[in-house]
Fold these 4 entries.
Entry 1:
Amino acid sequence: MTSIEVQDLTKEFGGRRAVDRLTVRVQPGRVTGFLGPNGAGKSTTMRLVLGLDRPTAGSATIGGRPYATLHEPLRHVGALLDAQAAHGSRTARDHLRVLAASNRIPDRRADEVLEETGLASVARRRVRTYSLGMRQRLGIAAALLGDPEVVMLDEPSNGLDPEGIVWIRRLLRRLAQEGRTVLVSSHLMNETASFADHLVVLGRGRLLADTPMRDFIHARVQPRVRIRTTDPGALESTLARHGHDAQEHPDGHWTVQDARVDDIGRIASAAGVPVLELAAEEGTLEQAYFDLTGAETEFTAQHQEA
Amino acid sequence: MEFTPVLRSEWLKIRTLRSLPGALLALFAATTAFSALAGVSDASDPGFDPLFTSLSGVLPGQIAAISFGAMAVSSEFHQGALRLSLAAVPRRGRWFAAKAAVIAVPALLTGLVTALAALLVGRAGLGPAADTLSTGEQTRGVVGCGVYLMLMALFAAGVAALLRSGVATLSLLVPFILVVSFVIGDATGTVADFLPDKAGQLVLRETYDGTLGPWSGLAVTALWTAAALLAGAWSVRRRDA
């Protein structure tokens, strides 16, 4: 199995550190969400992994080998960096055939990935006529061309319509299930939460988190319980007796911080408090992300600059 | 990585961008048209050179050769195209060599066909005034002209890789060829003889005087081209994509 190994990777652009001593290992068989604000170093890291930029220090390897030494790299690693990269005057099919030829990938694969990305019917149209969503699909088609074990996509959901978003989610899940290494950068939290198993979070080029997504959320966002009753007074006093602090909301429902439905349900039932609604409120990735980034002072400072 | 697949891929790139075969077509059309015009001109000028007059369509026509070389390279510097190309072919030196090869061969072949056509229409216009031309001179003119056009296309390709822009390359080279070389070029026996275009154009002349001959002149152009390609290759290899 092939993973992406990044070791002490540093990249400076004219004295500014875009990537700062980053060490991370992206494992196969799961989708790793790559998070961070604009300018955090996500795209730079991907370029360094692909050998497009030269690191100031450190190394990045694919299955232990630097990208530039791979014999036919598209057969090992597929990447989408910029959906605008395809020349507008070429047809989508020719664009893929050009890439395929350099790595001795048969033209048949171009037709297959066009089919897979839903572009088969427009394959012979010039890329210039494509919408952003279609270009994004073409970029993904190019990434899948060599049937690679490692797939790296930079903001793949950009410009996709709702149908496309669902499609990419399923695609990413499937690629991971097939045992591939999937690294997907995004700044859309809800979107990332829908497909990622694991998270790598960057801020100002530094690693802020490298954890499974569930752990990331649970460690940072306290679970809450949402409850509605016809007898607010009884509810509040009962919960208070058990050491729970309940807050009332203007629309009449209550939330109990740091609590689980199992406990609250039993307490309410035992006290005979009539319950109309009882639900767990899971923390969201967005909440966890802002909790993390809010804790990083440098990170916030950078936000204010921008 | 093997070289042949890279070469195939680069050749496919040239073929699938309409503007590139278009530039070669323009090279042929412009050169023969201007040679045809020159052929019906006055042949009584004391400095009249029937070979150069017949092939003089190359002077404006070479702009198409330069555009071909510049555009073939500059299409890689649009958006993230270069990143995509170098992700597919990370051996940058090999990639640039393939790029140069797929510029050189079509430019040479089109150049040879163009030169032959230009000579024929030029001679047809000149009539008996061109009868002094020997077969050897005409062969030298046609072959030299093809090589010259290839060298100019490659020169532009090298400059475009260095400047990373087709617009910058053309706005540097076209005025240079049309204005600088044209204005100071008449002063033979100066350093102007060693300019990349002036030196190579000696091969298009029946008679010549000065330090350089037809082949040594072409060699000077080849040196310029080699320098531009090396600078371009250095830039491609060394800079972040």
Entry 2:
Amino acid sequence: MNQVNKQIKHPLDDLLRTDRIPHIWCPGCGIGTAFSSCLTALKSSGIDLKKTVMISGIGCTGRGAGYVKLDSYHTTHGRAIPFATGMKLANPELNIVVFSGDGDLFAIGGNHFIHAARRNVDLTVVCVNNFNYGMTGGQVAATTPYGIKTTTTTKGNSETPFNLPLLAYASGATYVARWTILHARDLTESIEEALLKRGFSFIEVLSPCPVNYGRRNKVSALDTLKLYQEKTIIKNRVHPMELDIDFERGVILGKFVDEEKPTFMDRYDKIYRPMEPMEEEQAL
Amino acid sequence: MRQAVLTGEHFITGDVACAEGALAAGCLFFGGYPITPATEITEHISSQLPEVGGTFIQMEDEIAALAAVIGSSCAGVKAMTATSGPGFSLMMENIGLAICTETPCVIVNVQRSGPSTGLPTQGAQGDMMQARWGSHGHYEIIVLSPSSPQEIFYQTITAFNLSEIYRLPVIIMTDEMIGHLSERVIIPKARAIKTVSRPRPKGRKDRFKPFKPGPNGVAPMAIAGEGYNIHVTGLTHDERGYPDMTVEGQDEMMSRLTGKVRQNLDDIISTEAYRLDDADIVIVSYGVSARTSLAAVDEARKQGIKAGLLRLITVWPFPEAQIRRLAKRVKGFFTVELNLGQIHLEVQRCVAGIVPTFLIGHPGGTIMPPERVVETLRARAKIT
């Protein structure tokens, strides 16, 4: 007799710590989709997964490192990037993906982000931007739009949010893109491209947080997905100055930066570890 | 290129000797951030590390410096950072990460006077309790305190060895005086230097449990990129490295983390006794203050006070058993330190009222003059 209840294997199971499922992400949350795109890209990129590491900070997205079946490190709040920097410099053969949230990477960890981009450390940074601190119950973030209600901005956010791709571009990132979790295929392709690219790559993924963000602003996960469908426009190569997030006006997605620049290690090796003794002019 | 061990006789500062000790120990990564009076360690190692095949990076702050050090250690290299008070404060959270994830690394604090910016160019020993308890939660840690440039060279090697053996951060608590003091430092031949590397896993990769302790309470350490697919987290975790949010899980992890130090005290703790055999009065001191205490012991002896010195080479874990034993046969304890009573409190705790305990301390800015130690001993000799 055929086994009726045979569990169907998910194509990403070999990259998941299936013994840690169910995960902590809420129904309607977009992190799982972003995570799944990331795992698909890891597979399709053809990079050596034995030499691939995922590093996360703290927060909902930060739990990503705990579910991926790779060498994975769940570090302190905001410090995934400097941790990754040390790891990459100690072993440049490693492919390192930093998978973390907007609060972790851009508020408490903002300084590390701009410096790693400036140094062009060869990392792939995937930031799931759900516009608030979900893990702690929905507080205002450095990405929360003006006027939005959170548990610490009960009458609406009075601050201006970061334009993340602009920040990445201005800091020197060699690859910058933005997608939403609705654009899973573009997102997967983009992560794959970033993984194969030498240099500091940054991908922002817009994601709903229905339980903490949506609830207080009367938007369901489905409403957010509709916004992602109707109020976004793909414009590759647009100047990052135009990437402020305003769903009234429309939000631009796409790949904005894709440049070649020597990495931190390229330059360090050239100056401090030349294969041949340096000529005097070169040294200058 | 140069050799990692700079064999020969040198006239160098404690800071430079520390950097040379790190290189001799096999350090291949340094994440730094400039701060007086530790800057010279960072400067020296920045120029020398690439010459031995290592990598130096000056990070954007001390938080990032220690994060990078921990990251590099997880990739399998011996790594270090050096700082002073304000930077040390910024490192506290990541010290906890290294403790919880059992990641070997060495942190040097060249102490200056605090609190806050304090006296940036003048030494103190005011961070001794911070070194013990500064990161949140309960933990055990190893802290060494050198008294000379020669000793800081060797202690840096010891610090690396202990951090590798026990898989935890080891802190060297030196001070501005020792850091900036130039003295003769003899560096032996490379074969005379014993270096140790962390225990590494063997056997089937799919069955490996990254936090299952070995015989001495320490788990073998898999590094990133070896194919073990390990998960490492600062959350409370089980032997698989998986988060375990239960009371039992916390209890089990904490016994593992504290047990590996508590069960190996004899191997870890090191002290030095000077004229203690027939002493009535024990001076307990460490770092630069142990040097002035040494002079004070000799002077006190000349004046008929039978003093001796117990110099703490390992400050944490505290040599509790040794102090308790001494307390049974001497008449009193004097702790000499450049703060207003930190290690003194620990001595007081261990002596437990058996004999009187006194503090000879000042809040930093200069060394403790030996005369003041002798005067205090004389004044208190009547009581004891």
Entry 3:
Amino acid sequence: MGTATSRPARQLAMVFDLNKCLGCQSCSIACKTLWTDGPGMESMWWNIVNTMPGGGTPRDVFSHGGGYRDGQPVPGKFPAQREYGEAWDFDQQAVFSGSERIPLHPRERDGSTPSWGPNWDEDLGGGVYPDSFFFYLQQICANCSKPACLEACPREGLYRREEDGIILIDEERCNGYRFCAEACPYKRIYFNPQRAVAQKCIACYPRLEAGVAPACVRQCPGRVRHIDYMDNKEGHPHKLVNEWKVALPLRPDFGTEPNVFYVPPLAPSAFNEGGEFDDTKRRIPAEYLREMFGPGVDAALETIEREREKTTRGESSELMDILISRDWNDLMGPFTQNPAELIRPPVTR
Amino acid sequence: MTAVTASRIVGARIAPTKDGPLGPLSAGWGAAVEVEVPLEPTPLEVQPSAYVRTAWADRKHGATPSVRAAAAVAGGVLHVRLRWKALNPRPAITDNNVFADACAVLFPLDGKGAELATMGDAAHPVQAWHWRAGTAIPFVIQATGLGTVTRQAPPHGVSVEATWNADEWSVVFSRPLEEQGVPIRGGATVPIGIAVWQGALEERAGLKSHTPGWLTLEVPA
């Protein structure tokens, strides 16, 4: 069991390619049905995909503090459940059986109309027509190398696995103090009000231990997600992060050194005044991408464009081959076991 | 009985009644001497988390100036009652950012020797009976230093009853004298510490009001 200051023997890492995400939430549903259908977990989305630029989940997701600045912890807030989005009720009865023709309405627990929820502003995006733009941002726990959550807990209620760097909450030790949720700058820790414990993405570690990729990785129809140990020099995360340098941490200014990396979005070129594509102008503002992915984003985008042009000319590109991953299993590193072929004990719940 | 400020809680012996255990508002408490015990904020610098020390550097905690305490033995069961004013009652955890009011009494597990300020040490564990508003069963916890708290699974013999009345919490912890754990026997003098958490101020964990040193609980013979 690793501590906050010691690095684990191995570190699992993931890369999400933002240029391939369909926004279909298959990852979210795969996670939801597998892990968060228990009591008190109704409104949890350990995996969530949000349209960016946008408010995110919870609302204004990156504005609640936490993480580190100049090596010192930054005080954070844990937004109320409504800011994440409650598990709404819908008035199906009135819609299907009522005498009036009314649209389906979600309702908060207290009967009020929701004002925020998962990917609430999915249809907004950014920019001004015709240079509108958006991209989908997938978030799970990033199992940070400098985990603010783990370091914030006064009673060692979280721990890091030595074998893969996955950070888990020990629900026997967790007292529901929620300092971890305040300290996580990505707001990926939830609170179970029925059990008064914090809960979060567990990187599907029981699947990993059986050689099966996490549900969000395996269920992704867009082949967005790559997973492997970072010390595997032939693995996609190492290749994309350390060699090609096209996969970048989200909000590196938070100082937690996350182990989920993102291939930044290219988006189509901007239009010129004549209404034609101007290949010299990016549609997504560079300053916004730098804020999201750090100063390496310009070089990363240039590399992706350069390699893409190579394949357009009919040349080969290792980078494009990795990003495309024509063989599905290549995405999953050592976790290619088909779960349907495993012998599983009967479900006893 | 009129409350007086003291560091000694003298337990009363009360004849058991057919009304059952001594509840927070039971008339039987009239036979006990209730004392007003001053509380202080726990020192921020000893909180075992850099995040907590930083996040609370400019925030007030330890907002309960005193607690009224009394003890009684009835039918072989020790009852300890704590009463205090809550700023704004937080009777349950109802949201991510809502924290419940709470209180606890602390004892050296062997009845002597442990440091209260450090929550004991490896050689001198402490035990606490911890009540959190909204829960019917108290947590019985043990610690061998700050940040080492572990919970003891029921059955542990400790029960709790709490009432919100007249703008104050009244909480009674009860445990049979002969129960395993802290040696609380008839005629014994036992060190006791008290802590109170104001949920409205987001007090939790080590952020609380407490007695900076041991008080004395005199258990009637």
Entry 4:
Amino acid sequence: MTETQFWTFFFIILTFGIYIVIAWRSRVKETKEFYVASQGVPTLANGAAIAADWMSAASFIGMAGLIAFLGSDGSVYLMGWTGGYVLLALLLAPYLRKWGKFTVPEFVGERYSESVRIVAAVAAIVVSFTYVVGQMAGGGIVFSRFLGLSIEWGVVLVAVVIFFYAVLGGMKGITYTQVAQYTVLIIAYLIPAFAVAYQTTGIPVPQISYGQILTELDSLSVEFGLNEFTEAFSGRAGGQIDVFLVTLSLMLGTAGLPHVIVRFYTTKTVRGARYSGFWALFFIALLYLTAPAVGAFTKLNLLQGVQGQGPDSLPDWINTWAPTGLVTVNEDVETIGTVSNIATSGADLIVNNDILVLASPEIGGLPAPIVGLMAAGGMAAAMSTAAGLLLVISSAASHDLYFRVFKKTGASEKEQMMVGRIAMGLAILFAIWAGINPPAFVAQVVAFAFGLAAASFFPILILGIFWKKANGPGAAAGMLTGLAFTATYMIYTLEVFGTGANDHILNVSPEGIGAIGAAVNLTVMIVVSKLTAPPSEHVQEMVEEIRYPQTRKAPVRS
Amino acid sequence: MSDVAHEGTSGGPPEAEDTSWRQRYWKKNLRLMITLLAIWFTVSFGFGILLIEPLNNIVILGFPLGLWFAQQGSIYVFVILILVYALWMDRIDDEFGVAERNDEGGYK
């Protein structure tokens, strides 16, 4: 066993032990605990749990590398995946919390109609599943790369630990393990980032000091045939309009993803939901503000390391990572002249985006324990997101579908609990299967889940809260046309499901179409709602009531 | 100072409960929300995307300003916006007596 493997085992076993202890201590007996942790989660803990839930294996491992090569246009992910929280905290969280209950489809059902609820439940399951598969595969890959385990065993091991705390503790167990997982992943992300910033610039604050290296990074990038880091609209083919639409789609999608929204149901009060939104974005921002700095520093180190070198005299980390297939060197050239992150580019040195974070301790020459910590951080990111998604799947399947369609009345508390746990178990089994045999289209579809969430959930939630006259037929028509429009354009421009890819219309990429889909949904919903009968008095009264945190008492202020 | 000080418990039959405070509360909430969302749009879509190229001519600590807004500045502002919203809503809730406080006046 190498020193790196020893430390990786050490940190993985230590952190998994912590998760299991927390899971055992927060096991639950009632459905209210299982689905929404008895609405008793403190705001700070809820914020950390939302952050861990949100930041997936892709955020942790892939994003910095993606930004390093996209340069300025990497901002679509940075702004898109944080700006959505402003919408969530101001437009959705307090009102959905006031309304209460267990799931997002449940709100939709009570606000609009039972048939809209079923559509929403199915959409929640599909969106969450495309995500969860990526997490399971991501966890398996971390195991295989750092520990030499097979991917299959990695996936099974991850699933067993998640099974333990998700089935025992439901939302409560998941929330408190996520708090621990957030702590692990943020430490693992920040330590190498601060160390690399200090080594390169003498200032250990990467968010501030990466400005100093940008000029050098630009000229080196051009030398190796890459775009300049600081030049706007050079990383994405669609230019300004595409950057605008992709950012907007990611923001609207973030505010429409069921596994994030449902976390705001777990706070004690409406006020708690507002502050949870603040803490969540604060914790997320710690990683997202660091990611572009990690990308810039690591790319600079990488390019400096290979500048003027031949294939035989490259830095050590390239040899270490070559067996994983994440780094490919053209052995026939004298010196490395071109670098790329695209496998088919034909460049002399081809590096996968993921390597920039995974190998950053080695590229920066940091000691073995930090490499081990990095692996534990990647695992924490993958597991926390997977657990949150599995809860949405099991609650939509049991609470919104099974007890609404198959067994409408007379289910005892005990029976509901049992069905919830069985649904969770089945979801995990399915996730293991899909994680080991990821369907070919999953990797592509995950990136588009946001567009679909933006075009389906976001408009019906917003209008449901802010417009009393929005009704069931309007919501159903809006959601279906929004989804159909968005999915059609994605299939038209992408090679998924065996269809050929066509050119983008007006430079709109398939990642950006969700914003237009949301506008279509909104328009159709308003028109249909106006043409049909308004919702019942009872529903309008409910919409009125969610505006006020509680019934009015004498004002407290003097 | 509070605009509800002379309402509420000051007599009158219970069925004639004054609900005009509801509109005023909601209007204040919406005004705050729209102001904060205008800032949200300006720093991200405005400075970070639409005006990024002219702003990039200004360089501070090595960062072209447009790039800084797109990758750092907008995110700092987002965090502050949510905090301001939560704090400000506490004040509005208290002003209208709908804050989630227990009988001792502390938050639940």
